[in-house]
């Protein structure tokens, strides 16, 4: 609820995730600025010999420790793919932890403003300036986390300066209010600009790494994923690469038009994706060409079983714009059981097995082996079903 007051409007979840990560990204600056604020208040407490200020210094240290703890907790506990509700909870934690420390600073400033000690007032002003700089420079991607701490730190002493009702303190209050006003405008402007820039960056990254029609990973993402998968390959496990080619797609595309053809590709991708395990990848690498990377296999038959399952899924006709269209799928499979395997060689083997399948028949699969027509028997497939 707190954050919504200064919310700059709807932000895509992927951009929101990047913004929350940036809030928690710089532990060093949080520590340095927090310690500077505590030291400034401690100097003022020493000059004024004020017991309440000493207590506020200790509260400031506790608030700083809590803020550091929240940052460390985020780094260890935040999931890798958080939903919007989770991100909002982490943003609220950040706001509460930051506002708590700022409120202690504001209480100290109110106490110092009543002391009539210019040096102590200057020390507090420097501490507040660090909050302002942090709000503008580091957390201005989100309006709430930037402005709530600033308001908590500045509002109490600003009130005291105004009620002092002398020229010096009114001038001080005017300078403070002017700087806060400028900071608010900068924060709001930065939030809008940063939201747009981060959204554009996400969009460009998606275009560079994903197929625009199916939103599947493209060849670039496939190569990167396959390299990483092979590098992490565990002993007694293997990786299977499936090259898929839609049978009779060209005929359907020519007969019904490109719009129906695009619908077929999207529907095919959806069906195949449903048959994969978490951690496997489906990529589109050409017009009607797809590649699956199947990870963590214990035996070759698991790859054959997946191929057979996909063939079964595709036998059911597709309903695209009122047209019932039947397709098939030819599959070539290559396996690797060592991290030394070369990704492009593995893809070439799977592609070769695919074309062997298409020469022999359609709506079938082959596994790359020394034998020209190597594929498991139906009995062997049933044994792993």
Description:
The protein is of the alpha+beta class and 385 residues long. It folds into two domains: 204 residues, no CATH class; 165 residues, Alpha-Beta Plaits (2-Layer Sandwich). The protein contains 13 helices and seven strands. The strands form two sheets. A five-stranded mixed sheet has the order 2-3-1-6-7, sandwiched between helices. It has a two-stranded antiparallel ribbon with strand order 4-5. Strand 6, helix 12 and strand 7 form a beta-alpha-beta unit. Helix 2 runs antiparallel to helix 3. The two termini are 51 Å apart.
**Major beta-sheet overview:** 5 strands, mixed
The whole-number mean of residue pLDDT values reads 82
Q: What percent of residues are in strands?
A: 5-15%
Which percent range fits the helix content?
55-70%
**Ranges with pLDDT <50 over ≥5 residues?**
1-7, 370-385
Count of the separate structural domains: 2
SSE blueprint:
Blueprint: H1 13-23, H2 27-48, H3 51-77, H4 84-113, H5 118-137, H6 143-164, H7 167-209, H8 219-231, E1 238-247, H9 249-256, H10 258-274, E2 281-284, E3 289-297, H11 300-314, E4 318-320, E5 323-325, E6 328-336, H12 343-360, E7 365-367, H13 378-383
Helix pairs in contact: 1-4, 1-7, 2-3, 2-4, 2-5, 3-4, 4-5, 4-6, 5-6, 6-7, 9-10
Organism: Lichenifustis flavocetrariae
InterPro entries: DGC-Regulatory_Protein (IPR052163), GGDEF_dom (IPR000160), Nucleotide_cyclase (IPR029787), Rev_trsase/Diguanyl_cyclase (IPR043128)
Domain GGDEF: 237-370
